[in-house]
Amino acid sequence: MLAPAPASFLSRSLAAATATAILFSASVQANPITSVEKDGRVYRSVDVRFVDLDLTTAQGVAALESRLKVASQKVCGAAERAPLQQQMDRRACIQETMASGQRAMVTLVARAEAGDHFKAGERIAVGS
C-alpha cells in the first residue's frame, strides 16, 4: 500500500503561496510612499491598485482589503520591538489608514456594482 506523498503536495502549495506573496508584495512595493507636509504635520500615503480586481465578487473585495492592509502597514512603518508609545502610534496610524481605505473601498464597490468601468491605471491613495 502506497501512502500519498504529503511532502510533495506541501512543497507545491508552499511554492505557489510564496510566488503569490512575492508578486503581491512587488506590486505594493512598486508604489512608493508619498510624503507631504501641511500645517506642520507630515502626511504619508501610498497608491493601491484595484482595476485588476472584480469588485462585484467577495474574492475581489477581499483582495482589495488585503492590499489596503499591506499598504497601511507600509505607510505606518514597522514598530516591532519599539517602545510602547511607538507601537500605540503605529496601531492608531494603521486604524486611521484602514478606515480611509475602507471608505474608498465602499465607493469603489458601489461604482463596480453600478456597472462603472474603471480606467486603466486608476488607483486609490491611502494614508494618514
User: Strand-residue fraction?
Assistant: 5-15%
- Write down how many β-strands occur, each being a DSSP E stretch of 2 or more residues: 3
Secondary-structure element pattern, one letter each: HEEHHE
Question: Stretches where pLDDT falls below 50 for ≥5 residues?
Answer: 9-29
Mean pLDDT across residues? 80
- Which structural class do the helices and strands define? alpha+beta
Describe the sheet with the most strands: 3 strands, antiparallel
Q: Mind telling me the C-alpha Rg?
A: 18 Å
Helix content: 55-70%
Shape: elongated
The strand order across the widest sheet is 1-2-3
Number of helices: 3
Q: How far do the termini sit from each other?
A: 60 Å
Overall number of domains: 2
What does the model show?
The chain has 128 residues and is α+β, with helices and mostly antiparallel strands. The chain contains 3 helices and 3 strands; from the N terminus they run αββααβ. The protein has 2 domains: 30 residues; 97 residues, no CATH class. The protein is elongated, with a radius of gyration of 18 Å. About 16% of the residues have low confidence.
